[in-house]
Each structure stands twice: as C-alpha cells, then as structure tokens.
Amino acid sequence: TEIYTLSLHDALPISARGQLAVSVAVPQANGATSRAIATMAADGSDEHVVATGDYIDPHWTPDGRYLVFESTAAYGTFAVPAGGGVVTHLSDAAASVISPDGSSVVNALAVAYATGPPALAVQKIAETPAGLVTAGPATPLGVSGVDPVWSPDGRQILYATEEGASTDLAIVNADGSGRHDLLATASVKAVGMDHPGFS
Hints:
This protein is mostly beta strands.
C-alpha cells in the first residue's frame, strides 16, 4: 500500500481504538491511480478502503464513528462512516476541523489566497440518516487565518496568520470574542508557523 502524506511533519490520525486513517493509492482500470481513504491497524494490517475519489487528509471524529477529509477534485470537506458507506459533503470550506465534543467544525471559508488568508467560521454539524452534515449557517469569527485547531476543552481556536513574509499565531474564543496575538511582544516574527497545536 502506498500511503500519501501532505507533509512530513503531519502525524497519521489515530482513533481512540488505535486505528489509523490514511490516504492510499488505489489502481484504476486505465492504469492511473486515485487517492482513497482507508483505515488500518497500527501495524499496517486489516486495511479497509472506506471512500474512493481523490480524497486526502483524513481525520477521525472524536467518537471514532466518522472520517472527515478533503478532496483534490472538489473544494470542500467530506465525511464517511468509519466502516464505509455514503460520502457526504460536510462543508464548502476545505480543512474543516471537528470540535472535541463533535458538535461543530471550524472552517477556513473559501476566500482566494491571492487576496489574503481565509476568514474563519464555526458551523454546527449533525448526524442524519444520510450521514454527517452541517446544520445551520456558519458563524464568522471575525478573524482571518489558516490551520485552525481547537483547544482540548473546545473553548478556543488557535490558528496561524500570514502577514507578508512572516507568520504569526493567534487565538480566539469559539464565539469570536477575545482574539489575542500570541507573538505580539516578540521581537522577531516566526516564519512557517503552520499547523499549530495544543499540548
């Protein structure tokens, strides 16, 4: 199995039950390959392809019942049951990140990178007979940035901001209040401060 990773510093997502979620190469009848989402044991055994169609960057929902991922063919975020099934279009924004309680996603709304970083917004999600879907309109946080990540308690969102040649880090409450620049007093701004995270 050929496993795709977006970058060398990204860890493979692991569910609470110890399963990996990976993007794998699937041979096509015409000799080409597509990227699919698969689950497997930590030793590489017991591989199951759960969604096919040029999908990348899978992540587990906190309860381990769904996988959330992006597509290289269609902009947005998608979801599928961990055991396979119908793929649902979860969000028009790429890189949606599920909150620790599984009730919401934080999105980087579709704004052209040429005009600046995307605006961040929070949107409720719900499980329906059709699968995992967004529920209701997105709530803008009033900040722009990339690579958002929830705090472990789900009350804050950490993200990277791009300012010219440098990158900064900021944090905001999940309701959009209390934005705070983490490097405001630093004498030198960081470069390449992408994919931030909490301990």
